[in-house]
């Protein structure tokens, strides 16, 4: 909607909702559940195996339980979850293979070994999980066949084939599941991040990118500019020509914005007719030049719609980080107030300062 009487914003733009959990957050959630389950399960198994003459397996299971509890304490504070998870899978896999080798797990060891492909893929991803699965699969099947020879003492070929096929089948199914899950998550991220009409990033993506740019520019002591752009009299254009014409104008504008900006710049549709551009490594004077080129280009743009031409203009407000504000809320407000000033001064102009 056109902001005929636009007032300086009162909303806190720092309250942007989180769009999605990243891959690390997803795996932390899984780990929290799995670690509790594993800790309880192996503790029970450790106690049940105490009656064996060789208590090595029982002690190793107890070590897994302790590792899981320590990992749980560190889970929300460490950035090295992959290292911790790799350590867990190494310990678990080693216990399973040792139990098969020492016959402490007897034939049960192979059943536990079949849990390795889905667990590795789920917790470590396709690449690292695939490496762990391959290593434990080769070792586990080899140890099982060696520990359980045929009646005449020769290699049990049938056991080797059946064990290998079973393990490979579970590995393939686990790989397909994880691949499809990652593919689906990536697709959902793209959908969530993009405005369906213009193809630009949407409002939910804005603050996340802003924080990334701040982090990189603060370390290099560089400035960047936030530009807000609003289509003048957009409500009137919609009412007079219909919403299809309005959509055409929005698409034409997004194309011109893309044409006039660099590949490193970030473009967002933040409202009905309001857009935002983040210009990394760009001072306000440079951003002003870009804004004026864009504004003049749009002024001359006359998209053709239903045997008539449409003409529209835009107003813009600029704010430079950290000169005009060090956080997202302050900088966005400053740019928005300057956009308001451009509207108040007659529209079709750019305001970069008082």
From TrEMBL:
UniProt entry tagged with the keyword Phosphoprotein? no
Q: What is its EC number?
A: 2.7.7.65
Q: Enumerate the SUPFAM superfamilies for this protein.
A: Nucleotide cyclase
Instruction: Indicate whether Transmembrane appears among the record's keywords.
Output: yes
For this UniProt record, give its keywords in alphabetical order, as a comma-separated list: Membrane, Transmembrane, Transmembrane helix
Pfam families documented for this protein: GGDEF, MASE6
The UniProt record lists the GGDEF domain at 222-354
Enumerate the catalysed reactions: 2 GTP = 3',3'-c-di-GMP + 2 diphosphate
Q: Which NCBIfam families match?
A: GGDEF (TIGR00254)
The protein depicted here goes by the name diguanylate cyclase
> What organism, scientifically named, is this protein from?
Shewanella yunxiaonensis
